[in-house]
UniProtKB/TrEMBL annotation, chains A, B:
This is Homoserine kinase. It is an enzyme of class 2 (transferase). It comes from the Bacteria. It comes from Pseudotamlana agarivorans. Its EC number is 2.7.1.39. Keywords: Kinase, Transferase.
Amino acid sequence: MNEIKVFSPATVANVACGFDVLGFCLDSVGDDMVIRKVEKKGIHITRIEGFDLPHEAELNVAGVSALAMYDAIDVDFGFEIEIYKNIKPGSGIGSSAASAVGSVFGMNELIGRPFNKTQLTEFAIKGEALASKCEHADNLAPALFGGFTLVKSIKPLQILEIPSPDDIYATIIHPQIEIKTSESRAILPKEVALADAITQWANVGSLVHALHTSDYDLIKDSLHDVIVEPHRSKLIPYFNEVKEAVLNAGALGCGISGSGPSIFSVNKGLETANKVKEAMERIYSKTGITFDIHVSKINTSGVKIV
Amino acid sequence: MNEIKVFSPATVANVACGFDVLGFCLDSVGDDMVIRKVEKKGIHITRIEGFDLPHEAELNVAGVSALAMYDAIDVDFGFEIEIYKNIKPGSGIGSSAASAVGSVFGMNELIGRPFNKTQLTEFAIKGEALASKCEHADNLAPALFGGFTLVKSIKPLQILEIPSPDDIYATIIHPQIEIKTSESRAILPKEVALADAITQWANVGSLVHALHTSDYDLIKDSLHDVIVEPHRSKLIPYFNEVKEAVLNAGALGCGISGSGPSIFSVNKGLETANKVKEAMERIYSKTGITFDIHVSKINTSGVKIV
């Protein structure tokens, strides 16, 4: 096998209470990538469609993660990468993570899978760092492993796969505004009230328990963020209106996807997920802001060969 | 049935990362109580052995929780309570919780179990509040439910029963020094670094996952407290020495039990728990401080009829 086509999925990081540690994987939105073994040594990005991104491997997220892996293997050939980008950069649903994951996953398949998914995440972190200026894995982990993941620590890298009920669907609205990463970081407090932190870790523990036990009511009770959302939601127009409408439409929970501007909801069943989509549309169609909405089952397998 | 004998167990609250929310139940140490239906209406504490505690129901933890339940039922009889106290008050292993739980559990059994365990916890919270000056349930929940518990919230009261592996043993040393509750509260910061809070909720999520999956290595990796222990450990003589010796002896984790002064460890297997006991003894026997050590399997059923 010299060529492989890969689907690298979008992801939702933070998941309300789990800032910086939790994430889940989407099914219906993601990038397509082609990875090809070629004689010419090195990493060569030969085609990018969808968005205007750099072709130089060392300036491209998929290229940097590929180079990190390429440096760790000893081969007398190279790789070409084609990127068919569907996830808009800056949308808050793991666009850079999908790129970073797709290249290393595809290369690993082509050379007989010498690396496990945690090792692939280590390479992909290098690509993600190019985009977000810091090493984090809260989008990479769900993109590689699928389902719900908890990044327990970065050094050493520890990723936990949390089971989830079958009937969970996400609805995500991407308002096409730009939030600068620097701004979404600067707005966070360096210190938080101990009482709020306790509420947050009670919710994280309880969400993990709820996912293990398929307890939808408890999932709903756990999807609250008292730490980050009160600050970052100010950067997202109509966040409070959307959240209220989404919860009224029956969602289990609603919050900021990654650092925004996308807003995610978690729902029991496709019917509710579609009602939530309508509620999001109702609010945003009046605002004059362009938006996309995705409805997706939780993707339990992550990045895959297509 | 007009009389019942109850074993009301000691408990460990906080469990390293889970400050204010997690707890587990012990098997080999606890109070014995006798609860008796009598003609004379009201709650009457007729006997207390072991420690000098008030006999007036409204001044006694077991009495206050009993009164809270008595006010909620409509009966033409009363209850006598005898308390054979084995858990030293102020030891940090849930002495007041055991008293608060024993009376309401026993009364509930005698009147045909009209209340579930969460409702019993609501009554017991009133007794616990007499001792600790605030309403909390992190010792009450494991004493009533057994095993590991997560108190997700107090209002409304939500208690989650987290499963645990069969082979977990706790070793607990109680150095017989007094730590004033006011002091152990005052030493805690009102605000904590966001980065530390993230570490803590990653550990809480990861511990819940580890307990669900019987992953001992992950239990070990999760039992860290970066928020409270750095402050409260200063109040416990030789805490750092004990912790180091305990971890060297093979414990999965070690921390402050409740607000101290007891130090708990969690171990895989009885053999390790006994080695940890020896390690604790080696350190403390040189200090001149009187101490007790308990080795106990996790008690998965909680308070019980004997």
